[in-house]
Amino acid sequence: MENRVLAGLQPERALYYFEEISKIPHGSRNTRQISDYLVAFAKQHQLRCVQDAVNNVVIYKDATPGYEDHPIVILQGHMDMVAEKTKDSEIDFTKDPLMLRTDGEYIWAEGTTLGGDDGIAVAYALAILEAKDIPHPPLECIFTVDEEIGMDGAAALDPALIQGRVFLNCDSEDEGILTVSCAGGATSALKLPISFEKAEGKGIHIYVDGLAGGHSGAEIHKGRANSNKLMGELLEKLLKQMPYRLVYVRGGQKDNAIPRYTMAKVIVAENRLDEALGMIHEIGEALLKTLPPEETRATISCEGCVCRGRAMNIASTRKVVGLLNEVPNGVQAMSQEMPGLVQTSLNLGILKTEDAELSMTFSVRSSVNREKLELIARLKAIGETYGASYDEHGAYPAWEYRKNSPLRDLMVRVFENLYGRKPVVEAIHAGLECGLFSGKLPGLDCVSFGPDMQDIHTTRERLSVASTARTWKYLLAVLAEL
Fold first, then answer.
1. Which candidate in 117, 118, 147, 433 is catalytic?
2. Taking the domain 186-396, which CATH number applies?
3. What predicted TM-score, i.e. pTM, was given to this entire model?
């Protein structure tokens, strides 16, 4: 008899399939095997199935007796996981199974991520698809690929495959929270041509360091300082007091992370080095006093350095400093419908000086598609005044809040009936596949939910067994009411 790590835990069949999935490599960009597994599952259970060119799978199941005339319900989750492991783990994610462990309270994987995000959605759906005794309307179960690296599968899925407009997404990590809206976004870049000439004078390195940083979606509302913008302020104030030429400025590594560190190098006249160092110190001290209280580790420092090679000419220096200060950053609008929710924002995450241009890369987000487009248009317009070109990739639409959502109302009511308390209904300033599907499927009524998970995308990832069982019970109760 096969030894099953999760044997005896509830919900039995859902956790059976979760364990089966864990045996199949399914990191992002490595989803062919799990996609084929889903196709084989459909054939085994005589269910209609479509597998598309990028490995998305849609499995269809007829309604159970008494639900034939009910609207089609879509169950959706993604099949890829973030494949991370500890330094001492010998697992090869391209071929080895995960080593599941449980203490009866939590499930985890030894030395690696667990893939509860979003393997639990796949497992729930498979358990429902195989069942003969679970009441439900007609089902369309969508399993997408590569959600973790840009929602590529959802973007590629042909909407003609889907007829339903009632959409249950199981890609949330907090039981009792119903997500009903998310931001759309894009990665936007401005590229400013710059000219260089021979460097003459004394060099100074300037450092902005030790900022709190954070995620540009989840933490943009906290008002944390952006090291790229802070450096821009310093350079602008210095330029008003003393002429200099910029050699380079660079900071940040990811567009969706609030940058913590930015470095610049400037050239000043030989006889003004000490004066410039004093000015930078004074400007830095004043800027530090303007930062929010949590920026306790922030530092602004400078030091003389070797001057050799080339520096930007005066015109390019002024353009760089001007553009860096004029571009917007941070929260641009708060939601009027969801108190406390950031509606529109952008983050200047990456700043680079390259051979003949300065590039600025932004993460733009909004839960209102019109506002996202308006903010992008504003960025373009500011860039054009300085001669900068605009580029964009990874755009995805917002999942806009619906004032009238029968699905949301039903799910709130079912939750209250089961647990005697109200669920939290929230919107998030981050992206979900629901945004892409709401753009593809006009009139979509959608809610995202899921069981409790901890430390997703890390080797400390944990899935709560009790929460998985309660969320399963809740899902079946919702299906019975739809």
1. 147
2. 3.30.70.360
3. 0.81
